[in-house]
Amino acid sequence: MNWREDRGSSVVEFALVAPLVLAVAVGVLQVVLALHVRSTLTAAAAEGARAGALAGSSTVVAERRTRDVLANVLGGGAAERVEAYRTRVDGVPVVRVSVTGRLPLIGLLGPASLTVDGHAMQEIP
Q1: Is residue 2 part of a domain?
Q2: Angle between the N-to-C axes of helices 59-73 and 9-53, in degrees from 0 to 180, rounded to the nearest 10
Q3: Which domain does 47 fall in, by range?
Q4: φ, ψ at 123 (rounded to 5°)
Q5: Number of domains in the chain
Q6: Cα distance between residue 69 and residue 35, in whole Å
Q7: Does a structural domain hold residue 4?
Q8: Which residues have C-beta within 8 Å of that of residue 26, sequence separation ≥ 6?
Q9: Is 87 among the domain residues?
Q10: Residue 3 in domain
Q11: What is the spatial distance between Cα 10 and Cα 43, in angstroms, rounded to a whole number?
């Protein structure tokens, strides 16, 4: 038997490399999904804050608008908690919307939920 013969080596290489490639692919997919959810939560919080900051609007409108945006983009169960309140930032009245959502993670790696804020300057009637 020739020691340089490679018959069967590609099967062994595939068996050794395939799990590593699969793990890297799942890791990349997890990061992409987490970034998508984070950016969607942030955009929904900002949109809700803008809706609540309009003259004559309320924090209830801000929460409702945030939930509507999240339901349209991520589905109804994406947000665990949505809170809107009026506050001041450097003396300027703003509406702040805080959204806590679940991250679609496989396994025990990383956080299970994420909290983001969006704020908009309150219009004066």
Answers
A1: no
A2: 150
A3: 9-121
A4: -75, 140
A5: 1
A6: 17
A7: no
A8: 106
A9: yes
A10: no
A11: 48
